[in-house]
From TrEMBL:
One of its GO terms (biological process) is photosynthesis. This is Phycobilisome linker polypeptide. Residues 222-250 are annotated as: Disordered. It comes from the Bacteria. Residues 241-250 have a biased composition (Basic and acidic residues). It is found in: Endomembrane system. Keywords: Antenna complex, Membrane, Phycobilisome, Thylakoid. Pfam families: PBS_linker_poly. PANTHER family: PHYCOBILISOME 32.1 KDA LINKER POLYPEPTIDE, PHYCOCYANIN-ASSOCIATED, ROD 2-RELATED. Belongs to the phycobilisome linker protein family. Transmembrane segments: none annotated. Residues 11-188 form the PBS-linker domain. One of its GO terms (cellular component) is phycobilisome. It comes from Microseira wollei NIES-4236.
C-alpha cells in the first residue's frame, strides 16, 4: 500500500505571483504545439524540451522514437516530457548521481518550473520515490494539477517567472542546481583549482588606445637603447707625445 503524499504548505514564491511587468528578454519563450506553423517550429519545440530536461542533449542522448511519435501526433508534449524523464540518459545523469532529496529538487525545477517550497516538500516527494519508485514519482508530478494548470498537454515546461520585483532575474536552474551532488563532485575531483602563472588583464573597448595615441609607441621607445656614445677615457701618462707631434721630413 502506497503512503499518501505528505502535506506541505506552499510558500509565496515568485512563480506563484501574477506577472504585470512588460515582456522583455527575461520572459520565457513558450513552446507549444498549438501555434506550430512549420516543421522547423516542431524542431525548435523538441530542442526546448531537451534543454529543459537534459540541459544539453548529445546525439547519443536523443530519443528518436519519442521524437517520431511527437512529430506524427501520436503523443502529446506532456507524454514526450514523461518519456524524457524516464529515459536512460536522465536516469544516469540525474537519478544515479544524486540523493532522493536532490533528485526531487531537480525534477520539481524541470517539470513544474519552480523551486521546491521547503524541506518538507522534499521529504514528501522523497517518500513517494521510496514507495512508488522513480517512475511513480515522475508520473505523479506530470499528472499533478499544478502541471496541468501551468503547461497542460501541449506546452513545454519552462522556468516560470524569472523576473523579480527589483528588476533582477533569478538564476537559471542549471546554474543554480548543478547536475552532480557534492558527494559525487568530490569523487570526480571537482572543483579543480588551477593556478595561473600569468595575470590576465582586460581593458574595456572605450578605454583602449586609438590610432596615434602616444602610449602605443611606449613599447618601441623602451626597446631603443638609451646608451649614447660616451667619451673615451684616456690617461695622459699613456700618450706618447713625441710620436704624436708632427714634424717635417727633409
Amino acid at each position: 500500500m502506497a503512503i499518501p503524499l505528505l502535506e506541505y504548505a506552499p510558500s509565496s514564491q515568485n512563480a506563484r505571483v501574477a506577472a504585470y511587468e512588460v515582456p522583455g528578454d527575461e520572459q520565457p519563450r513558450i513552446f507549444s504545439t498549438d501555434n506550430l506553423l512549420s516543421p522547423t517550429d516542431m524542431g525548435n519545440l523538441i530542442e526546448a524540451a531537451y534543454r529543459q530536461i537534459f540541459f544539453h542533449a548529445f546525439k547519443s542522448d536523443r530519443e528518436r522514437f519519442l521524437e517520431s511519435q511527437l512529430r506524427n501526433g501520436q503523443i502529446t508534449v506532456r507524454e514526450f516530457i514523461r518519456g524524457l524523464c524516464l529515459s536512460n540518459t536522465f536516469t544516469k545523469s540525474f537519478y544515479n548521481l544524486n540523493s532522493n532529496y536532490r533528485f526531487v529538487e531537480h525534477c520539481v525545477q524541470k517539470i513544474l518550473g519552480r523551486d521546491v517550497y521547503s524541506e518538507r516538500e522534499k521529504i514528501a516527494w522523497s517518500i513517494v520515490i521510496a514507495t512508488k519508485g522513480r517512475a511513480g514519482f515522475i508520473n505523479d508530478l506530470i499528472n499533478s494539477q499544478e502541471y496541468l494548470d501551468n503547461f497542460g498537454d501541449n506546452i513545454v515546461p519552462f522556468q516560470r517567472r524569472r523576473v523579480l520585483p527589483s528588476g533582477a532575474s533569478e538564476l537559471p536552474f542549471n546554474i543554480k542546481s548543478p547536475r552532480y551532488e557534492a558527494y559525487h563532485r568530490g569523487k570526480l575531483g571537482f572543483p579543480q583549482i588551477i593556478w595561473q602563472t600569468s595575470v590576465r588583464r582586460y581593458t574595456p573597448p572605450d578605454k583602449q588606445a586609438k590610432a596615434g595615441d602616444p602610449s602605443l609607441f611606449m613599447g618601441m621607445a623602451r626597446s631603443i637603447s638609451a646608451q649614447g656614445n660616451p667619451p673615451q677615457r684616456v690617461s695622459p701618462y699613456n700618450i706618447d707625445y713625441e710620436s704624436k707631434v708632427p714634424y717635417r721630413k727633409r
